[in-house]
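We give its fold:
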Amino acid sequence: MKAPVRNAQAFPPARLINAIGLRISNDQSPRFRTSPAGSGRFPSLTPARRFEFVTLSVRPGSSPAPQYNSPVAEIKVDHARTLAKVHIFSELTESELAFLAQRAVARRFSPGDTVFSEGEPCVGMVVVESGHIRVFKSSAGGREQVLSIEGPGSSVAELPVFDGGNYPASVSAIDEATLLLVSKQDFQALCMAHPQVALKVLRVVGARLRRLVGIIEELSFTTVRHRLASFLLRQARAQGKRTIDGVEVALPVTNQELASQIGTVRELVSRNLSRFQSEGFLKINGRNVTILDLKALEAELQSAQ
């Protein structure tokens, strides 16, 4: 096996062909190195310390499989499978997914760990391989508004990859999570080779915009009681379990977290849950709630509108 080419001048740029058919110069293809532990926040990537440039090249007519020069660069099959589940990558071939998996940075996060914070420079988009993350905005006074909860196969931060801005919101881990970072350079190169990926990003961003408009509408025009009832009904439809008494749903781990998801404070969450229980809509058992009559709660929601 020939040693991998490190110097882009070894071949004219027009003869450099990488795994997805793009030409690569010696200063546009960063491959990120992970730390041995592979845990913690994604690094602040700087050329001097965080990554090295490696030209992935093959001679025309030779095998299309790129040669890599580090054991760190071994393709992680599980990463490729994760990327295949992401909507915007669903039409890529196995070799293209392997190319992304090869270059993605994996990190493990514990519950409560910050992935990135609002206002930080965007280094790439993030894909959830396992676990769950919360996307949220924070006020100067410490109040939080959860914008979404994302699980395996979801992606976040596609927009700042395109517009060059900072991260517009913060992300933290809810439980033990493994996340993949796809760098801006790699993602933009992929979109140049596969325009359908960019079109899918537009659809994803459009869906998020509609969801954010819904959040604004709820916060502007409804009461805490209404938002709590709406949250319980959504949970019941998405993951409710039928029991003898009704439909059981699991609440977030704390009332503070629930308050962040419906745009209020912990005290009002506790108060309104107690009222729903005293009025016979539900029964509370720790962090599990049994909705005794879904239709009655739906009718209560409609009457509050």
